[in-house]
Amino acid sequence: MHSPHSNNHHSFRQQGIALIEILISVLVLAIGLLGIAALQSSSVRYSQSAQERTTALIMAGTLTEIIRSNPVVARAGSYAGNCESQLLADWALQLQLATGTSSCPEVEWDAGAGVYTISISWQDEKVASSTSFEIQVRP
């Protein structure tokens, strides 16, 4: 038989182990919550970046429709240029406002191939990199 004194000592040891288990559980939970907070922050940044990219793509599609709607002027290369171009100034300003940048899009005309190349690029501060894409359109 065990003496009552040894049972008390054994239960005291169990209480200390339970406290250590609770502290470890709290530590693991805190690390998990910090990971979830970091993941949420990254998710917000990347979704905002994707929204800017989508908006720029929609704006490029808008310009392709403008070019296609006036084929005679388009085939003369009149839409080629950058922000200073008279036909592109309003569109370029809307693009800059939509992407939150001062970068100027470029529209090049290849008369031999009969193709416009629309190049849009901007510095994406949310993900610390630059974003760019090109679209080609035939008038």
Set down the secondary structure blueprint.
Layout: H1 4-69, H2 71-75, H3 89-99, E1 106-110, E2 115-124, E3 129-137
Antiparallel strand pairs: 1-2, 2-3
Q: Biggest sheet, open or closed, and with what strands and sense? A: 3 strands, antiparallel
The H/E string reads: HHHEEE
Strand content: 15-25%
User: Helix content range of the residues, please?
Assistant: 55-70%
Average pLDDT figure = 84
Radius of gyration equals 31 Å
Number of helices: 3
User: Structural class of the helices, strands and pairings?
Assistant: alpha+beta
Number of individual domains = 1
Strand order, sheet with most strands: 1-2-3
Poorly predicted parts: none
Plain-language structure description:
With 139 residues, this protein is of the alpha+beta class. The chain has one domain. Helix content is 59%, strand content 17%. It contains three helices and three strands. The protein has a three-stranded antiparallel sheet with strand order 1-2-3, covered by helices on one side. Helix 1 runs antiparallel to helix 3. The radius of gyration is 31 Å and the shape is rod-shaped. The mean pLDDT is 84.
Which tags fit this structure?
3-stranded antiparallel sheet, 139 residues, 3 helices
